[in-house]
Amino acid sequence: MSNRRFENGQRKCGTHSATGTTMYLGTADVQKITHCQVIHPTTIDHDVGGSCAVKHHYPSPIVSWIEDLSSFGSAPFSHETEYVDEQSRPLVGQSSASSNLRDMQISVRLTDEFMELAKENTSNNLETCGILGASFRDGAYYVTTLVIPKQEATAHSCQASNEEEIHAILSEQSLYPAGWIHTHPSQTCFLSSIDLHTQYSYQVMLPEAVAIVAAPTDPTRSYGIFRLTDPGGMDVLRECSESGFHTHRETTDGGPIYETCSRVHFNPNLRFEIVDLRSGA
């Protein structure tokens, strides 16, 4: 793995020389994005603008074809195999604290790339998770790295292992832990009680941190980007010491525990790299 850093004013791999045009895509728009790329870099691949192309670190194979999200997963859709906490239904909009958050920029390709790497697990009805690393510049966070850690998965949960490897990568590139992405192979697009605790661990470090859920068998939305409401959901999770699937108390203001993110933008010009740490992936 490369130890190269970009210092003294140079841009890190994954950031773009200009902010560029950003857009927020609906589910239907994201599903239309298909592209083919074959990349076999062993060193950083710079484009004319000084940015870096998507780079895949071995031992994992590179992604060569990105397909429609609707093509992923053959497991039957199920509403009842996992309990959905009614207090956790997402709010569409923003909580009072959201207006104070910094913008976050994410590549339009990131979810598709992740789904390709998760394809085998998804077809076997196993969750897959990844960690988002972001640089900060010009008053905004830019997700420039997707780390796929070693992990243990079931149909309804996914646990990263060897977390020191994740920390080493983020530290080496001076990146913020900007959240996480994971699949619900046969579930709807929501945050389970376990997911809420995982998101709390990120959001308590970085208020802008997001939880991206990819749910290819959900007939209404194949992906969602969520945060805990603040202070409502953050207070509930801060006081909760339970583990496993469980219910949560109501928030003090009676609102949802988590919400659909505001101030998150899909950027068609943002470059990023993927580091897949799974052995034999």
Describe the overall structure.
By secondary structure, the protein is of the alpha/beta class. Helix content is 17%, strand content 24%. It has 6 helices and 15 strands. The protein has helices spanning 27-32, 110-117, 119-123, 163-172, 193-203, 232-239, and strands spanning 35-36, 56-57, 65-66, 91-92, 103-107, 129-137, 140-148, 151-153, 158-160, 176-183, 210-214, 223-228, 258-260, 264-267, 273-276. The strands form 3 sheets. Strands 2, 4, 5, 6, 7, 10, 11, 12, 13, 14 and 15 form an 11-stranded mixed beta sheet that branches. The longest helix has 11 residues, at 193-203. The protein starts with 26 loop residues before the first helix and ends in a 5-residue tail after the last strand. 43% of the residues are buried. Residues 1-88 have low confidence and may be disordered.
Characteristics of this structure?
281 residues, 11-stranded mixed sheet, two-stranded antiparallel sheet, 6 helices
Q: How do the helices and strands follow one another from N- to C-terminus?
A: HEEEEEHHEEEEHEHEEHEEE
Major sheet details: 11 strands, mixed
Query: Helical stretch count?
Result: 6
End-to-end CA span: 16 Å
Strand content: 15-25%
Mean pLDDT over all positions: 74
In angstroms, what is the radius of gyration? 18 Å
**Structural class, please?**
alpha/beta
Helix content: 10-25%
Number of strands: 15
Tell the overall outline. Answer: globular
* Unreliable residue stretches: 1-88
